Amino acid sequence: MTSTLTGTPSTAPDFSTLPTPRTEPEWLERARLVRTVLAADAAERDAAGKTPYAEVALLKDSGLVTLLGPVEHGGGGQEWPTAYRVIREVAAGDGSIGQLLGYHLLWFWAARLVGTPEQIAHVEAEATKQRWFFGGAVNPRDADVVIRDEGDEITFTGRKSFSTGSRVSDVTVLEGVLEGTETHVFAIVPSEQPAITFHDDWDNIGQRLTESGSVTLDGVRVSWAEAAGFRDKVFTPRVYNTLNVPTIQLVFVSFYLGIARGALDEAAAYTRTTTRPWLHGGQSSAVDEPYVIDLYGDYTAKLWAVEALADAVAQEALPIHREPDAVTERARGEHEVRVAAVKARATEVALEITSGIFEVTGARSTASSLRFDRFWRNVRTHTLHDPVAYKRREVGRFVLTDELPEPTWYS
């Protein structure tokens, strides 16, 4: 399978002339280059709401889609702490594209989550060499997709109301339940095929370029050999299989914080150049206004604090990811509690910053052409994914009773 997605923005550097990043600082610098390209026309692209083919091509050409891939196949060989920081950088330029990259990296990694050693090696080699872009049709709030056993193959049939990445993906991760059982099955399939219909019905107020519309599966055929983690139609579970939730929640945290950083940086640039001081305040420049200085200091301190917590939680999970067969239920549960804590704080701080920037940019900053509201719309849209109160409850119960969260689709 090869990619058919083209159209890198003309403002992007020619990444083919640049050396492949090898270290975390080099990958972060690559992400900053991508952020700069995206930020240049983010407001206009948000208004247009067009399918982000060019933006995905940018992620591919820059190499960011192979960040977690094996070095021997041309990948970055990086780990999750770096990936989360890269997602933050990209989201600071465009929240939608930060989400797309985050979900892509999650589904790229999903082979390690549930696959056999042979499947992991095959998927990571092919995905890295061919720079596949991953989407996913895995929404637990919908009815389960029905999987039927048809001998050497299985078929997926059903509908999901969300499928982030949809039309811009090369491959899509499917999940469903084997008919007559409670057995869940994951598989990676080509996105472009007659049995998959992506519906152009994503029309939400924020994250407008994430291609998160609904999808219909009409008997998508998959070999049993490609059913993730199965041998002779039997799946052997391990605790590591449940790391999908804390990992994706940290992906969420990453693009929430990235969007907040983008809002704060863009607001600061506007304040320096355009915001006028209050006519009765006695200041000649907005940057000398005491309330403006105070709010920027407050927002920045809060953002720095949550970024530091997010980085710490990501580092704490490294032993789990490095020794997946050794992770215990206790270690998994304690990690989920820490993730819940940072998810709660990131949600609150990102919402506060993205709505509060108008206090320091002034009335004229509400002009539709600037679309400063996109930062709040983006955060507000995705933070409704699951109620943050339940994240705080996980932390509170752990503190009071040492209760660990039960692994579910949301904890």
From TrEMBL:
Renumbered residue ranges of the record's region Disordered: 1-22
Biased segments, Polar residues type: 1-20
Organism of provenance: Actinomycetospora chibensis
Gene3D superfamilies: Acyl-CoA dehydrogenase/oxidase, N-terminal domain, Butyryl-CoA Dehydrogenase, subunit A, domain 2, Butyryl-CoA Dehydrogenase, subunit A, domain 3
UniProt keyword list: Oxidoreductase
Pfam families assigned to the protein according to its UniProt record, in alphabetical order: Acyl-CoA_dh_2, Acyl-CoA_dh_N
InterPro entries, per database record: Acyl-CoA_DH_C (IPR013107), Acyl-CoA_Oxase/DH_mid-dom_sf (IPR046373), AcylCo_DH-like_C (IPR036250), AcylCoA_DH/ox_N (IPR013786), AcylCoA_DH/ox_N_sf (IPR037069), AcylCoA_DH/oxidase_NM_dom_sf (IPR009100)
Residues of the Acyl-CoA dehydrogenase C-terminal domain: 250-385
Domain Acyl-CoA dehydrogenase/oxidase N-terminal, residue spans: 32-121
Protein name: Acyl-CoA dehydrogenase family protein
